[in-house]
């Protein structure tokens, strides 16, 4: 949802994006011809709307009325099956490049050759930096930024969470630059309780919440993957609006 109450919906099944102006379903419009195949995630950075296209490795950048900006959709060698999107405090947008995933999944395609990474799009939607491949990233799906603008990616593979230095390196461990991995490059933040993670969120206390999506083995006697996992206090807390009344 945008700050003007517009609701944006990525329709993976028919390569379109729906817009409910002001949140009104009666006024809904469907936007095609955006150059997206399997649109997956939508974010609003306060200036533009960004939509990832998994199957054709693109990110569309739209004006608030749904029209694409010049140069949209963005194509970049680093965009390899892009999925989750997240905005940072400075308006830049981070992209989770799964490297392999198309929908429906869950299995990695036998001929998959993509490289998992994250990319960074400027706030005006015109330039792309990266890909950034550190932090133990393996198959990022969901992505979020914390109160310092640092980046957290939920990996669908290998039971790990990845963290990256954001656009303000002064908030990162000494010596790191934008896009460098904060989590270990060989393992990420690994935990056996993680299973095919698809979503990640940061709360106002700096806790990082990760969604377990489904079982690695479809039928098993001791199933998991119906939970969320919290990395308590791992991230910079998000700002909270002051209470009124």
Choose one word for the global shape. Answer: globular
Structural class: mainly beta
Distance between the termini: 25 Å
The CATH architecture is 6 Propeller
Q: Please give the CATH class.
A: Mainly Beta
Instruction: Provide the β-strand percentage band.
Output: 25-35%
What do the pLDDT scores average to? 91
Helix content: under 10%
Number of domains: 1
What is the number of helical segments per DSSP (H or I, 4+ residues)? 0
What topology, given as strand order, has the largest sheet? 4-5-6-7
Instruction: Summarize the main sheet.
Output: 4 strands, antiparallel
Radius of gyration: 18 Å
The CATH H-level homologous superfamily: TolB, C-terminal domain
- Looking at the structure, the CATH topology is Neuraminidase
Q: Name the poorly predicted regions.
A: none
Number of strands: 18
SSE series: EEEEEEEEEEEEEEEEEE
Can you characterise this structure?
With 245 residues, the protein is mainly β. The chain has a single domain, classed as 6 Propeller (Neuraminidase). It has no helices and 18 strands. The strands form five sheets. Strands 4-5-6-7 form a four-stranded antiparallel β-sheet, with no helix packed on it. Strand 16 and strand 17 form a beta hairpin. 44% of the residues are buried. The model has no long low-confidence stretch (mean pLDDT 91). GO terms for molecular function: zinc ion binding. This is NHL repeat-containing protein.
Describe what is shown at a glance.
With about 240 residues, the chain is mainly β. The protein has no helices and 18 strands.
């Amino acid at each position: 949802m945008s700050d003007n109450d517009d609701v944006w919906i990525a329709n993976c099944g028919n390569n379109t994006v729906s817009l409910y102006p002001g949140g009104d379903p009666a006024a809904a419009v469907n936007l095609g011809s955006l150059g997206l195949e399997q649109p997956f995630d939508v974010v609003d950075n306060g200036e533009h709307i960004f939509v990832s296209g998994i199957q054709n490795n693109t990110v569309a950048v739209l004006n608030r009325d749904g029209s694409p900006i010049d140069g949209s959709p963005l194509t970049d060698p680093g965009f390899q099956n892009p999925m989750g999107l997240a905005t940072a405090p400075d308006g830049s947008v981070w992209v989770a490049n799964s490297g392999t995933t198309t929908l429906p999944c869950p299995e990695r395609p036998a001929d998959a050759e993509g490289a998992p990474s994250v990319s960074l799009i400027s706030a005006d939607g015109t330039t792309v930096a990266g890909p950034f491949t550190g932090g133990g990233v393996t198959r990022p799906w969901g992505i979020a930024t914390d109160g310092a603008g640092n980046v957290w990616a939920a990996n669908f593979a290998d039971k790990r969470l990845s963290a990256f230095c954001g656009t303000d390196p002064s908030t990162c461990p000494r010596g790191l630059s934008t896009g460098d991995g904060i989590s270990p490059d060989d393992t990420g933040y690994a935990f056996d309780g993680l299973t095919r993670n698809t979503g990640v969120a940061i709360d106002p206390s700096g806790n990082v919440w990760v969604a377990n999506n489904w079982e690695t083995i479809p039928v098993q006697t001791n199933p998991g993957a119906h939970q969320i996992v919290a990395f308590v206090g791992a991230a910079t807390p998000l700002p909270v609006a002051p209470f009124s009344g």
